[in-house]
Amino acid sequence: MTSYRNSKRDEKKKEKGYSDLIEFLLNPSSYPHKPRDVRHIQTHASHVFIAPPYVYKIKKPVNFGFLDFSTLDKRKYYCEREVELNSRLCDAYIGVKEISIRNGNFIFGEGDKTIEYAVKMRKLPDRYFLKNLLSRGRITNCDLIRIIEKLVEFYNGQVVKKEISEYGRPERIRINVDENFSLSERFVGKTISKAAYDAIKFYNYTFFREKSSLFEERIKRGLIKDCHGDLHIEHINLNPQDVCIYDCIEFNDRLRYIDIASDIGFLAMDLDFNGYSNFANFIVSEISKRMGDDTIFDVIDFYKCYRAYVRGKVESIRSEEAEIPDKQRQSSEKRAKRYFKLALRYALFGSKPALIVVFGLIGTGKSTLSHALSNELSCKVISSDRVRKEVMGIKPNEKRYEEYDKGIYSRDITEITYREILNRGRRVVEEGGIVILDASFSKREFRELILHEAEALGIPFYFIETKASEKHIKRRLIEREKRGGSISDGRWEIFKRFRDEFEEPNELPKDKYLVVTTDKTIEETLTQILSRIIERESKRVPQ
Questions:
Q1: pLDDT of 437 strictly over 70
Q2: Model pTM score
Q3: Are strands 236-238 and 243-245 parallel, antiparallel or unpaired?
């Protein structure tokens, strides 16, 4: 954001006089209403000038393929389209203003030569933007109902047309999905891990392979319409008199001719991303009721995954744009990573909380795997090593080399530890999160305790048993003891007793039980786990 008085501008000229045009629009005296100051915001495709009580926006002379503003005629056309389309959901748009040259000076209105066109709209009050209201805790379900009613009226008012409905076919949707993976592949290892990239890709192709009939059914039900296309919390203004939803996609009809589930999926994903999953779930549920759309739940997580992935791609691209300041590029990189992790969560478990139990013999890489999964999903790990010492009042790195089943590793202390792990894990999932329990769970009764709780909570859950050759286990345990710094007290001297006393997990449901060999790289292990969970979840019958 810049101002006329103290901004530093390094605007690249796209055509003759372009930098002079920016100077003109930054000058408060250029405007007929003479605002006190002008604020300047840039996006990848436009310049926005906030000159209270109005906002003026010009389109940059750029061509990105999916967006083409390269000629004056095209910019005029898309300015007019922006006003026309956005007026469907917002009455703040005033019209398109000509900018021309008269006697060698820029003016608003007709002159000797037309230079540019600007969209003019009333400035919406900042305090009523949904994002700002949410951050201040000023939003209730009643407020959301106002947004929902506005959207339902809008969707019902859009005529179902064959040429628009065609965009809902799986082969058309897959074109967009394939394009996303192609454009984001260069960010693997930067803003998205290879394991996550492969897993999300696998999820999408599995969905197309096994559930493409869902897309066809939604076409038959007339749910592919001319929507908003860019529906997120920064584009909704909830003032006392009216709800204004603005800045829809005007530059490419293909990105606006979508399933209403994709439109709502964007808003729900944005709410999830910002920590308001309860509101996201409420909006989807109410849209379903008011639109009579009981099948939205079959596709909403697919679209939320798609939307989160697109945002990850866009932020990744922004993180490499040279003209953007370093601080903004770094922020974009962080946001990209968060969006990709959210996309992976949708791919695995949809919008639900989930429980993952990583268990097995000591030295098989349970903690390494748990923390790698935690990093991919941005979720919490609850470790028995840490909890055990906390409940006993012992510092985490203080070593207690007890004999097997003695001292703080006695049966009684282990039972207390596992119940505390369960209580902490329950709190996480009850708040809507994913949690990983990292413990040996060598006894059947302790695994059954977790199993029964997970079934009672009605959430997705998986038990992942880690295995490794004794050669690898011995090396890991000896190296860990030499290196120090580990919370775990597991060591080679007690391994054989531990192995002999370990009870095989025959009680676990086969579809909820995975075995992984951790002799491979952590990336290979992650890829194997993620794809197997996605495959199994795709077979699950929705409840």
A1: yes
A2: 0.89
A3: antiparallel
